[in-house]
Amino acid sequence: MERNSIRVVNGLIRRVIADRDLYGQAARGVREPGLKAILQESAESLTAIAAELQGEVTATGGRPVTAGGPMSGVRRSVMEATAKLSHDPDVTYIRTLELMERRLLDAFLRLESSSGDRAIVGRHIARLRLLHLDMVHMGGATGR
């Protein structure tokens, strides 16, 4: 993996970690026990993706990032404030996560189509699609 590739993969790791943190926050904030379990499982999946990407960076002699980007805290604060102001916080969490998951999936797809590191990124796309579909279906089930 080239130096530029390490930088790009580290950017993906930051996004994965930031989304994982959002899932964890949402899991702590939702009222529905079944939804809480799904969100916790999703956070665990994102933790696994981040760990695998970090392993790839380490294996090539790079130094992987271990935290989300500088906007992670802002996103968590906005999501929490929005949920508190919502008449149905569970729906607000789902909508926010659906949007974030779509953006994360798009970032992986863009990198897969334009990078020499397709194998590293491509392995995770199916898992990210499933996470995104979970949020889409839960959003539909809530009647939005």
Number of helices: 5
- Provide the gyration radius in Å: 15 Å
The number of strands is: 0
Q: Which structural class matches the secondary elements?
A: mainly alpha
What's the mean pLDDT score? Answer: 88
* Shape, per Cα inertia axes: elongated
Question: Approximately how much helix is present in the residues?
Answer: over 70%
Question: Given this structure, which CATH class is correct?
Answer: Mainly Alpha
CATH homologous superfamily annotation: Ferritin, core subunit, four-helix bundle
Query: How much of the polypeptide forms β-strand, as a percent range?
Result: under 5%
| CATH topology title | Ferritin
- The end-to-end distance, rounded to whole angstroms, is 43 Å
Q: Which H/E pattern describes the elements?
A: HHHHH
Question: What labels would you give this structure?
Answer:
single chain; Ferritin
Short précis:
The chain has 144 residues and is an all-alpha fold. It contains five helices and no strands.
Kindly describe this structure.
By secondary structure, this protein is mainly α. It has a single domain, classed as Ferritin, CATH 1.20.1260.10. Helix content is 82%, strand content 0%. It is elongated and about 50 Å long. The mean pLDDT is 88.
Describe the secondary-structure layout.
Blueprint: H1 3-29, H2 33-59, H3 72-85, H4 89-114, H5 118-141
